Amino acid sequence: MTGKARRPNILLITCDQWRGDCLSSAGHPVVKTPNADALAAEGLLFKRHYGGAAPCSPARACLYTGLYQMNNRVCRNGTPLDARHGNIALHACGLGYDPTLFGYTDVSLDPRLLAPGDPRLQSYEGVLPGFTVRQLLPEHQKQWLSWLKLRGVDASAGSPDIHRPVNGDKSGAVSNAPPVYSRDETPAAFLTGEFSRWLSEQERAAPWFAHLSFISPHPPFIVPEPYNTLYDPEEGPAFRRAASWQEEVQSHPYLAYDIGRQKQAKFRADASGKVHDWSDDDFRRIRAIYYGMISEVDAQLGRIWQAVKDAGAWDDTIIVLTSDHAEMMGDHFMLGKGGYFDGSYHIPLIIRDPRHGQAAGGSVDRFTEAVDIVPTLLDLLGEDPEPHLDGYSLRPFLDGKNPKAWRDAAHWEFDFRSIAEGEAEHHFGITSRQCNLAVIRTEKFKYVHFGGGLPPLLFDLESDPGELNNLAADPQHFAVRLEFAERLLAWRAEHLDQSLALAELTEHGIAGHAADLPPP
Questions:
Q1: Strands of 436-441's sheet, edge to edge?
Q2: What is the dihedral angle through the alpha carbons of 117, 122, 128, 129, rounded to the nearest 10 degrees?
Q3: Catalytic residue of the set 56, 62, 75, 435
């Protein structure tokens, strides 16, 4: 890089399952996130940012590739990511970085490039191509467990049993009792320490790229002291839901299917039964624990900011803080992610670039999406984002501008197929290709279109922010329903895979985008 300006460092942080409204800088009435807020004070908070899909693998495919699910085609955890797609790590490699991973990426590798007996074909927790792994932390968490053992913590229970409450209430009610590990021994604390150690090894003259992928505040919902009692279960906004779960499931066949499948054990290692059987008090206690988990990971963010400053890199580092998808957290008697509600897809986004501080401390109320991250980072690194990407660079907002030609809606997709077991296919009597939905959400309306003949949904979000009153069959809203169905169709037509469609073979050779593409 002799003769050229030094590229900035890149720090990409994802906190799994963090709701976009659960930031004090975003106006949450209860949750306090001073370290995320400190980043927002020097950067820009995007208040209407949405994930592109759920659960983890599909959401991250959108984030890492800059492509909608209709193009990256990662439908479920375990769906392989086609090797022909570029991604943020490969782009970074091409610019001279050695992108380094702390945590996980949940990418199922393309089986066509692996031998039949390759053990990587037995897990959806593969590593995104292009990343150097410094500290992997997959679902079994063995690396963290062995670290706990070295610290004298009894980790023999393994994961997820180590996340059971110590001396918890045996009555079956949700307890806020802490786990066996302390605030300094959480998975997030472990990864933060590993990142800080790695950071101390970096040469000041060479730019670095690090991706910290935290599991928090993903379930199991449990957190050490003092975060387990930091929030009063009685405090917090009202749940957005019907009067009862029995009434809730009457609103749509898919919702009935989804609510009926949710098991308590997925969210609390000490629980059994169905999620909808938890009482209001249980849901509130779980929510208070979730808020505490957010505060715990926020404390680790503070350690990260200090480590970057201590390394003398704060003024040379672009920081992106976001999530893959969000968390229902009691709304509609649900926990987790998926389906079509905002609670599953509205996620945080804060970007700080010390070179583009014109809008520092401000916020953006325009609709932004996970697919915008790749083109934004490329643009900030002085590269032209590839024109086939579905996202748009957010750099104009960082420069204090308000682009007129910007999307006026957020879009996301959810695929509920089950290739291995065929559960959804059997339940609805449809094919795997039909187990999907797509959403267009403007400031006023949300339209949800289902495959397989399932009925659509239409919500007036101004009068019904809880998404409780489906207007799709209301004759007075037929025109709105048609308009949004046409808008959704136009969106899909515009964004269908453009990787080679933006090229043409002519008598003078290749014209357009494909001239610069690597071979498949």
A1: 410-415, 436-441, 445-450, 457-460
A2: 0
A3: 56
User: What share of residues in the chain are helix, strand, coil (percent, to 5)?
Assistant: 35, 15, 50
List residues bridging with 211 in a β-sheet: 12, 101
Q: Which residues contact 225 (CB under 8 A, 6 or more apart)?
A: 178, 182, 183
Neighbours of 317 (CB within 10 A): 20
Q: Where are the beta strands (DSSP E) in 370-444?
A: 410-415, 436-441
Other CB atoms closer than 10 Å to residue 137's CB: what's the count? Answer: 23
Q: How far apart are CA 508 and CA 305, in angstroms?
A: 52
| Rounded Cα distance, 411 and 248, in Å | 24
**Between vectors from CA 20 to CA 14 and to CA 26, what angle results, nearest 5°?**
115
In degrees to the nearest 10, what's the CA dihedral of 479, 341, 139, 374?
A: 50
* Other Cβ atoms closer than 10 A to 281: 12
**Could you tell me the two tokens for 61?**
């495919």
pLDDT in tens, 292-324: 999 999 999 999 999 999 999 999 999 999 999
The question of whether 62 is a catalytic residue gets the answer no
Mean pLDDT of 18-40: 98
Q: Say how far apart CA 96 and CA 99 lie, in whole Å.
A: 9
Q: What is the pLDDT of residues 60-119, one digit of tens each?
A: 999 999 999 999 999 999 999 999 999 999 999 999 999 999 999 999 999 999 999 999
pLDDT 10s digits, 238-262: 999 999 999 999 999 999 999 999 9
- Integer Cα distance of 295 and 238 in angstroms: 20
First vs last Cα of the chain: how many Å apart?
29
Residue 512: helix, strand or coil by DSSP? strand
DSSP string covering 446-473, please? EEEEESTTPPPEEEETTT-TT-----TT
C-alpha to C-alpha distance for 106 and 89, rounded to whole angstroms:
14
Q: pLDDT (tens digit, 9 = 90+) per residue, 399-434? A: 999 998 999 999 999 999 999 999 999 999 999 999
Name the token pair of 393.
């660079």
pLDDT at 372 over 60: yes
Read off the DSSP letter of residue 425. Answer: H
Under 8 Å between Cβ of 7 and 206:
no
The 10 Å Cβ neighbour count of residue 347 is 28
Alpha-carbon gap, residue 147 to 398, rounded angstroms = 40
Given phi > 0 = left and psi -120 to 50 = alpha, else beta, which region is 106? left
CB 359 within 8 A of CB 398: yes
Contacts of 148 (CB under 8 A, 6+ apart): 155, 162, 181, 185
